[in-house]
Structure formats: C-alpha cells, structure tokens
Design a protein that fits this description.
A hairpin with a 5-residue loop joins strand 5 and strand 6. Helix content is 40%, strand content 14%. The strands form two sheets. Strands 1, 2, 5, 6, 7, 8, 9, 10 and 11 form a nine-stranded mixed sheet that branches. Strands 3-4 form a two-stranded antiparallel sheet. The protein contains 15 helices and eleven strands. The protein is an alpha/beta fold and 393 residues long.
C-alpha cells in the first residue's frame, strides 16, 4: 500500500454524541506546529462526531489555518474540508509516489525514512502550501520584505481561497481569532472577527515564519508568525470579554516535558519543543490563581455594606470580579522517537495519517471521562484535564 492509498482509508468513528455541555461557550484553541497540525484535525473530527461544535476558534500559525477551515465552513462540511487540506499538502512533492512505512517497525529505519521525506519537502515544498523560490534569495542581497524568504506561499493562498468561506467567518456565527507579530514594533496582535474584517492575509500572517516564509503585509504593516512571541492563543481566549462559563479544548503540538537529550540532534529537538510549547500548564496555573482571586472578590463584595460598594475602589474591583467557571482540557501531541527535529515540516501522507489518528484517538479517550464536560465544583472554579497525567491511558 502506498501513502496515497493510505489516505483513503476510513477513519474510525465514535458513536457517543454529547448533549450541549452546561457552559456558555465552547472554545477550540490551536497551537502552531507545521506538519503536526494534522493532530488538531483529528481532535476536531472526534469533537464534531460528539456534537461539540466550538463557539470560538483561535489559532496560531498552522493552528490559524485549521481554525479558518473550521470557522470558514458550516459544521457539516468542516471535517471534509480539513481532510481535503491535509491530503492536499501531504501529497508527494515532485509528483512522485512516496514510500509507505506501513509495515516498517524498526525505529531507526523509520527515522531515516522520515528524514528522507522531510528532505523532499525541504527541497520540493508541500503541494498546496509552499514552493521553493528559484533561484533562492541570497542572505546578503536586499529585497522587499514580502519576498525575503526561501519559499513562496502562493499555493497556500489558492488553497485557502478554495476551502475557506471568509464571508462566513465575518458573519460572526463562530468567533475567530488568529495571532501574529508586527515586524516593525515587535508587538503581538490578534486579528479577531469581533474587531476586524477577516481576510486570507490575516490567516497567512499568523503562519509567516521567517526565513522560510515571507512576511505578510496588511494595511501597510508587515507581520510574522505569532509563534515568535506566543505559540498558543489560550490566554487571549481565557481573558476574552465578556467573561463566560467556558469549556476550552487546548490542542498543543509541542510537549513541554521530555527527556534529557543524549546527543546534539536530540538537544536541537528538545530546545524546539521547549521554545514552542508555550508553557501551557504554567499559563493555566496562573489563570487558576487569577480566577480564584476574582471569585474571592465577588463573594467579598456581596458581604460589604452598600455604602462601601459605592466607593471607586469597590467599583474597580467589581469590574474584575465574577463567578464564571472554566474547564481547560489539554490534548498534547506526544511524538515518536523516530520523528526527529524535522517533524514540523515532514508532510508525508503516512505521517499525516498518523498525526490525524493520534489526535482522534486522544480526543475519544478524553471524552470518555465524564468530568471533562461537567461544570467544576472546586472552589477556584477552574478544572484542568490532561489525558497523559489524569487519564493514565
């Protein structure tokens, strides 16, 4: 079986359909990670089959592309559009069939095979995503910022035009947010359909990682990949106004935890994992402390006399106080040893299918834990769940 044959294999289905959970908002939070983004698509398939359609989708880099494919299509078409995108970009470069690793069990062989596939993407690009500039730019030659890159993203523009309905995104049916970095100021910026008229450039800007991909111009300003500052929009979603009871699925593609490296290749991989993991657990712990304070202030304000509530200080505190509850469900991709440092740009069909199925299975196992969809009853009003730590499966 070739990798292309494998792409048509049916995905396993879950038959558990969940009623709407008792939350005012369901959020899908998508981290950046290049080729690893197929994991997010697999997670979304499982959520869609369980009837857990998000009210807010936020993403960085490849997470922004997946977010656009979700928010830019009606619920019944989203999984199909995600499949179409990932099958397009995982086709073999140069139009040649790829070697199947279906029956290969030896990790050392798998490692070299993945490196070979990554080299194909490095030199040939990814169909429907990016293609190499010929001739490539020279490091010391000046040029326009939108052409200073080793790859051209014209294929991605054509793919997004075909698969994403930006009018639907701007209709506000689903809240949509993507993050990017202003090249001139270095400031992190969120493009949100509550404040911006979202277009293709906003999505591409979020994934414009130099020097591979060019900066994206929007209204005279240039933007790079949001992952340069923060690789997850979790904080943006949790701090969003108005505050609402929120069930957030945080889909991370980089695991902050790992082994001590034993060689230079492993050291390079480990630093990449640490750099792009965005310290999600630490951010979640900080949010839990903040929400505990907001709830404490809310209860305290109920106990003070009316004349004290009229003080400016009390009004200031009242603006920050609330009793909202949050479930933060972490799904983190755990890579195989053979994937190596090129796992974020190794777009082969077989590896894409592995990532997709891994995300799908992790989401199905997560949803088997009933507390995931229940309102938290702890005193801080925040429940966090991590399959690897809590589910022990």
């Amino acid at each position: 079986m070739t990798d292309d044959d494998k792409s048509h294999a049916p995905m396993r289905k879950t038959h558990r359909v969940c009623p709407r959970p008792p939350f005012e908002r369901i959020a899908l939070v998508l981290q950046g990670g290049g080729a690893l983004g197929a994991y997010q698509a697999g997670v979304y398939q499982a959520l869609a089959e369980a009837n857990l359609h998000p009210d807010w989708v936020a993403g960085i880099s490849i997470g922004a592309v997946n977010a656009a494919l979700v928010a830019g299509n009606p619920p019944e078409k989203r999984v199909a559009r995600l499949r179409e995108f990932w099958e397009t970009v995982s086709a073999a470069p140069f139009g040649l069939p790829t070697i199947s690793s279906l029956e290969i069990k030896d990790e050392s062989i798998r490692k070299w095979l993945n490196q070979l596939r990554a080299a194909g993407n490095l030199f040939g690009g990814a169909p429907g995503f990016f293609k190499p500039r010929i001739p490539p730019p020279l490091p010391f030659i000046q040029g326009d910022l939108d052409s200073l890159s080793y790859y051209d993203i014209a294929p991605l523009k054509a793919t997004l035009e075909r698969l994403v309905d930006f009018d639907l995104i701007n209709s506000g049916m689903t809240r949509f947010s993507v993050g990017a970095v202003n090249v001139r100021s270095g400031n992190f910026v969120y493009f949100d359909n509550t404040t911006h008229d979202i277009c293709m450039e906003h999505v591409i800007a979020s994934g414009s990682l130099p020097p591979g991909l060019p900066a994206t111009e929007i209204q005279g300003e240039y933007y790079w990949d949001g992952g340069l500052v923060s690789n997850t929009p979790l904080q943006w979603v949790l701090s969003g106004r108005p505050r609402l009871d929120t069930l957030a699925f945080q889909i991370d593609l980089w695991n902050a935890r790992g082994d001590v490296p034993r060689n230079l290749i492993e050291a390079e991989l480990r630093q990449k994992e640490i750099r792009f993991s965005s310290r999600t657990r630490a951010a979640t712990d900080d949010f839990k402390r903040s929400q505990l304070l907001r709830r404490a202030v809310h209860h305290l304000l109920q106990q003070i006399p009316d004349e004290l509530r009229q003080l400016p200080q009390a009004n200031l505190l009242a603006g920050e106080a609330d009793e909202k509850v949050y479930n933060i469900i972490n799904l983190i991709y755990h890579s195989h040893n053979y994937e190596g440092t090129s796992k974020d740009y190794e777009f082969s069909r077989r590896t894409m299918e592995e990532h997709w199925e891994s995300g799908y299975n992790d989401a199905v196992r997560t949803l088997r834990h009933k507390e995931v969809l229940q309102r938290p009853e702890n005193h801080d009003g925040v429940f966090t769940f991590d399959l690897a730590r809590d589910g022990r499966e």
